[in-house]
Each structure stands twice: as C-alpha cells, then as structure tokens.
Amino acid sequence: MMKRSIGIFVAALGFAVGTVAAEEAKAPAGSPNVLFISVDDLNDWIGVLGGHPQARTPNLDRLAAKSVLFSNAHCVAPACNPSRTAIMTGLSPHKSGLYANGQQMREVLPDAELLPKYLMRHGYWAAGSGKLLHYFIDAASWDEYFPAKEGEDPFPRTLYPEKRPVSLPVGGPWQYVETDWGPLDASDEEYGGDWLVTKYIGEQLGKKHEQPFFLACGIYRPHEPWFVPQKYFDLFPLEDIQLPPGYKEDDLDDLPPAGKKRGPNRYFAHILKQGQWKQGVQGYLASIAFADAMLGRTLDALENGPNKDNTVVILWSDHGWHLGEKQHWQKYTAWRACTRVPLMVKVPEKTPGMPEGTKPGVCAKPVSLLSLFPTITDLCGLPRKADNHGVSLLPLLRDPAADWDHVAVTFLDEVGSYGLSGERWRLAHYANGDEELYDIESDPYEWTNLADDPKYSGKLAEMRALAPKDFVPKKAPSVGSLLALDWHPAAAAEVPASKPDGNPFKVYFINEREDPVKLFLMDGDGNPEPRGGVKAGGQESQMARPGEVWMVADEAGRALGYFTVGDRTSRAVVPE
Questions:
Q1: Residue 165: per-residue pLDDT
Q2: Do the Cβ atoms of 132 and 117 come closer than 8 Å?
Q3: Are strands 505-511 and 570-574 parallel, antiparallel or unpaired?
Q4: Looking at residue 537, what DSSP letter applies?
Q5: Where are any strands of DSSP class E within 40-88?
C-alpha cells in the first residue's frame, strides 16, 4: 500500500505547510460541536437508501431517522484522495488540479487550509482519528489525533490474517493486494482498527470540553480488504447472498467507446473466473455491518455523554463502489453506483446558523460533498472561507423541498471527464466527447443510455449547459513521492523472467551509485534486453508494465540486482 511512502513524504514536509499566521479567535457564543463521521468506500447499500435488500445497517438507519437524509448526494470524485481533499479544503478538483489518488495533496495545494485548521483559527478544538485524508494526517491541521499525529499514519493496529490471500488468488501484478475477504476468529476489540478509532472518539464525546470541538471519526471499513470478525459474516449466509440488483449482463451494449473502456475491468472478470462473486458481496455486506456497529458505538457515546444536545452530526462516504454493475469492480467511474453516497446531517436546536435545528426528513435535491465545508461554517456562525467552491446546504436543511438550482458534479481522473447529477437526470461526459444520458426516475440503475436518442437531444443540451467549462491541468506527483519498488540484490543467474500483464506506465530509475549503471528488461524467457542506462547520481524514466523485471548491471555488464514492476507509476532506486 502507498500509505507508508505518503506518510514519510508528508512528515518530511514538516509542520510548515498549511499554517496561517493569524491570532487565534474565540468561537462565537453558543457555537455547536461538530461530529464529522466518514465511512470509507460505502455506496448506497444501507437500509434507508435501499441499495441492496440484504444490507444490515440499523445504526445508519437510526441516525438517518433523526437527520435530514440526502438521498441524491454525490461524491466530488470517485477516488479517495481527490474526494477527501475536496471535502477537507472546500476546493473543487477542476479548480485545484487534484484529480487522482496518485497525486500528493501538499504538492498540489501546499498552502490550502483544511477544515479542522480553519475551525481551530476560529476558536474550535479539532481532533480526529482514523482515515480522513488519503493515508496521511496533515499534523499541523489538528490539535490532537489518534494515532499520534506526528507519525502521519492514521491507522491504529488492525488484525489481518497471517497468510494472504485468503479468498481471492492474485490474478496478476495488476491486482491491488488488498482485494481479498474473509471472516476472522476475533472479537471487535481484538480486531482493533475501527474499534480503536471509535474508542478514542467515544472517549472524547464522553468529556466536557473548554472549547467547542470539531471531532472527526474516520471509519475505514468497508474499504478493502474485507476482513472483519466472524459474527458479521454470519449475518449473511453464503447460500442466501443476493447479487447486486443493479447488475445487468448486457448493460454495456449501448455505451459509447469511452464508457465501455471505463466499464469492464480485470477485477470483475477475475472474481467471476474464481467463482468468488457471491463471496465478495458477502464480504462487502459483512464489512458494512461491521462499520455500522462501529457507528453505533459512536452514536451511543454521544447520546450518553454531556454533548448530545449541542453537537451537529454529519455522516458521509467519500464515494461508492461497484460490485459487478457495468461489469466493473472497484470505483473510478462516473456512474451512479460509484457517485451516489450516504449523507446525513443532524442539527440541534439553538445552533447559531440554524436556531430551529433540523427536522427529520429526506431531501431528493442533487447535492455534492463539496458543500460540507461551507455548511459547517454557516452552522457554526463563522465567516465563510473565501475560496470555498461549494454551496451551503442550509436552505435544504431548513426545507428539503426548497428551490435548488444546483447540480452535483463528480470529476474523474481524466481531466474533462465527469458525471453530472440533477434531480432526475444524469449525464456522464468523457474528455473525448462521448456521453451518456440517464433518466433516474425510470432507470435508477442506468441501464438505458438515452444520449443518442433524438427525442432527448434537448435534455442532453440542457445538462451540458450545467457542466463546468474550464478545467485546470492535473499536476504530476514528484518522483520522490512515488511508491518505491523493492530492490533485490542478485547475480544474473538469479534474476527472474518478466511476466508482464497490464498497461504501461512510467518507472523512474534513480542511480545512487558513484558509477553509471546499465538497465536490462528481462524477456519472457529470462534473457536480458538492453534498455540504456543511468549515469552516476542520475535519473531516467522507462515505460514499463506490471510484472516486468528490470535488471541493473554495472558498466562491465555484471548484474547488481533487479526490480519487479508493480501496478502503478513508481521509482526504482539503485542503492549505493
């Protein structure tokens, strides 16, 4: 996983980034606390949204029954990093330039002020636990964190099987190592992970604080891998598992080329080949049930503590997840299975920005998670952050049926590609001009693409007119922030053959030796093919594929060692 290299990179930046030289202010009188709950990779498979008939989410449903539930809420991006960055900075990807997981937030946005830091400057105490950003903490933006913010690793100890994979054999070097699932013979406490996160959050909720607090709870499940205690798997006997209701075998037939390219991926085909589809669905449902139980611990701590009557509660997920819909597994798409997310907001009476508080209800207006930052500042009675790109949800919190002339836009990692959600209609637009149009009222699973039907040309033009027009370029991550490939010292006879499988990308070879080195790509029979070299202290890039083996030799041609290419752009450092 990338979290270690990212954490090291961020820690190296020190605490200078993102700070604001301003005198601390006191929060306005009566400022509410804010409990900010993130659930990772959760789609609409919860009871109140009806995404899957077997979902067991009593605590999500319990919170929804006391909140305004936004049934048409959409992520800002269908990937963790751009989605969470947009939420925590209030900056849209098409204006910030951060579109993808592989970018580094503090490289793209070195001076952006995060939501907790903004609240700290206005008199709040800000603390968090678990995953709120993409595998780092950004220590300067918090008063306190668990685990300790200085380590820049947001994950407490978590129990995993000793031998992996458990359920899904590795299909090739392209496969994400965490795509696996299975029950664990452990209690919730022994499991750790989100249990420890919610333990810390519960302890904070059980205290009276001198300042109003912003308390962020990052629940990691149902993010992969789907390993949770056995009792959560027992809720979903394998023989009873129902496949995703949004699946349709010929669903790709009416898609344009760009849509067909985004649809089928190796994961779903591999899962089908291994006979693991129902097991995967079971693992996801079990992980959702576990996350729901952890939410229940948090809600109980709030309701049984001294802060229940003056705490705003906001729950969201960073993006959805495909489990076979559109022949796709994972995320990264503009379809509703991936963009639609749970969003619930509960506001107590006497809150400065909304003294009447919220009345439980459902809002079907299209809203974006980009609205969370300005909504919180409005509720807390604070000045709005000048560069927020989202619109406050206060009008809809007061009246879920209020006039609302906004749409929700979900930005893909390819600049110029996006999904656009209205109240009834959805548009998927790709950078090459390909489009899909869906009527969600009659076609909630987006089975029928209407973009090429002349009868809907007017609606297509109307949706296009609501889309953003300008997109800033995507900034490439620095080489130093890329995942480092493992170096294997070896003689020529020990260097394995390549087993390439996947699309090419760049690998940066960095030579830390005092002498030049030569690069060789090993072919399928284990024979070295010359591919140039790297001067002493130099750096060169090569296009490489997952599973390729690159041998490094000295000037005389003697093998020094090799690298095996993984599933993403990386750096290969030849040690001294």
A1: 97
A2: no
A3: parallel
A4: T
A5: 68-70, 73-74
The strand pairing partners of 35, in sequence order, are: 215, 313
Short-list 325, 339, 398, CA closest to 367: 339
Tell me whether residue 75 is one of the annotated catalytic residues: no
Q: Which two tokens stand for residue 530?
A: 């010359």
224 token code pair: 């992969």
pLDDT tens, residue by residue, 315-351: 999 999 999 999 999 999 999 999 999 999 999 999 9
pLDDT band at 24 (very low <50, low <70, confident <90, very high): low
Contact 115, 88 (CB under 8 A): yes
Q: If we measure between CA atoms, which residue out of 424, 412, 418 comes closest to residue 436?
A: 418
Confidence (pLDDT) at 28: 86
pLDDT digits over 162-192, tens only?
999 999 999 999 999 999 999 999 999 999 9
Sign of dihedral through CA atoms 301, 303, 308, 311? positive
pTM score, two decimals?
0.93
d(CA 219, CA 158): 12
- Would the pLDDT of 309 be above 70? yes
CA distance 124 to 13: 25
Among 20-29, 422-431, 528-537, the least confident range: 20-29
Dump pLDDT digits (tens) for 551-576.
Answer: 999 999 999 999 999 999 999 999 99
- Residue whose C-alpha is closest to residue 215's, from 204, 224, 199, 226: 204
User: Residue 9 pLDDT more than 90?
Assistant: no
Q: Is 134 a catalytic residue?
A: yes
Instruction: Note whether 422 and 407 are within 8 A (CB).
Output: yes
Asked whether the beta carbons of 520 and 527 are under 8 A apart, the reply is: no
Radius of gyration (Cα) for the chain, nearest Å? 24
Task: Please tell me the distance from the alpha carbon of residue 148 to that of residue 442, in angstroms, as a whole number.
Answer: 49
Dihedral pair phi/psi, residue 67, rounded to 5°: -125, 175
Catalytic choice (52, 74, 80, 406): 80
User: Which ranges of 315-450 does DSSP label H, i.e. alpha helix?
Assistant: 336-339, 372-379, 394-398
Domains of the chain listed by start with CATH number: 3-411 (3.40.720.10), 479-574 (2.60.40.780)
Q: What is the rounded distance in angstroms from the CA atom of residue 484 to the CA atom of residue 462?
A: 46
CB-facing half-sphere around the CA of 227: CA atoms within 13 A: 22
Centre a 10 Å sphere on the Cβ of residue 456 and count the other Cβ atoms it contains.
Answer: 16
Q: Considering the candidates 52, 74, 134, 328, report the single residue annotated as catalytic.
A: 134
The two structure tokens encoding residue 411: 């930005």
